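As a representative case, we now present a protein record of this kind.
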Amino acid sequence: MQALLMAASEDLRMHPLTYTRPKAMLPLANKPIMEHLLLEIKKAGIAEFLIVVGYHGEMVRDYFGTGERWGIHIEYITQRQQRGTASAVKRAECRVADRFLVINGDIVARAKDIEQLVNADKVTLMLTEVDNPSDLGAVEIEDNKIKRIQEKTPEPSSRLVSAGMYLLTPDVFPSIESCRPSARGNYDLTDCLQHLIDSGYHVGYYTTDYWLNPDYPWDLLEANNDFLSKARTTKNLAEIEDNVTIKGKVSIGKGTQVKSGCYIEGPVIIGERCVIGPGCYLCPGTTIGNDCQIGGMVEIKNSIIMSICRVANHSFVGDSIIGEGCFIGSGAMTATIRLDGKNIKVAGIDTGKQELGVIMGDKVQVGVNASIDAGTIIGNNSLIGPGAEPNGVILPNSKIL
């Protein structure tokens, strides 16, 4: 059996992080989302993969290659125009066998749920229950059968939604041919499945209570914490100086130096070839990528720091996501709460969080003593001057002086 993974989309809701990468390549616990998914699919017994790429597809190809590193085989399908999931499945028609999996590459699932789909003998969906189904494909069940699938409707009739995981057979291809584009101009797989249901086909389903599908950048923090807290093993390959305290689950990569006076409280992951300290405090929920420099007396709390970043002395980064290649100058601070105690809003969206720092794209430069307001978005390649006080949404290539 083959697994067809969808990794062609940009996902505007994930800006500024997806200005420079597809959503499936966003990191959780120092691995792309899709790598976690791929490993679970392999555990379910599948070693043949087709990956649909489009937006920044070269990043996916360069990272996963032929799959040899994971003991699998990967081939690629290019979707140059983002016309929806059904369009992507149609492109794979001549390359799939009688039964095949289709899974969104930007979700995380469990092997045991994937195994249920693998064992299905007809078109079958994986469903899950969510609090707000309006942005997803809501599924209505009647007499233990799928009656209706509503894609992104403002008034969904059910809290059950498609989890972006399907077992498909060739029965689906005529329905794809018959489907019309949605109001958004996309050919959605859920619409095609509805056409199949309306034709009298009994589409099966399973349900799961585990499903990670980060919709917005701040959702990555919660998902990252989930992976860190559930890590079964840790490794410490660092060069550690005297007077360093390490507590809890902490993994540190090869070639990293941890200097005197650092206090690391897990769960924490630090990548390879980093320099940490002296005198740093790394709090729970922190992930630091490869080739980073974290200066003296820096505190990092519940944050994702991507690779090739430098955080200079006496800075604080809290509840934040820092893109690749960023520089944060000495004494820079990220606020993480509102003084009135209310939830933090980003571009008018209630994040549901009372603690949220900055979401920073790639290659942002932050000057000394800058003070970044809670819930600030900073686009890639922006320059934040010394002592500046950025807030709100800052577009890419901006200068705040």
Summary: Helices lie at 33-43, 57-64, 85-91, 111-118, 172-178, 189-198, 219-229. The chain has seven helices and 37 strands. The chain has two domains: 2-215, 227-400.
